[in-house]
Write a structure and sequence with these properties.
6-stranded mixed β-sheet, alpha+beta, 96 residues, 2 helices, 26% helix
Length: 96
Amino acid sequence: MKAITPTKDGVLLNIEVSPKSDKFRITGYNQWRESVEVKIKALPQKGKANKEIITEFSKITKTAVEIISGHKSHHKTLKIYDISEDDMIKILKHYL
């Protein structure tokens, strides 16, 4: 899965965000954009969408998460700490 890049202290995950959903969910993998498709409830106003993404991915992975690029874009890169590429793939497959 090309959306995941391993680093020395975790992984980078490329996501594509769609706001205004009825609930947070991981909906698929876009092979063309090499990103995981994510639907969120929050509107992209005053950082609400970014907060929801960080909160939900922290719950899913049970580790620290931060947005390292794409703060004002639908295309974001998350840094997920203390997790291996294999573990991240297992988590994503569970939700897909």
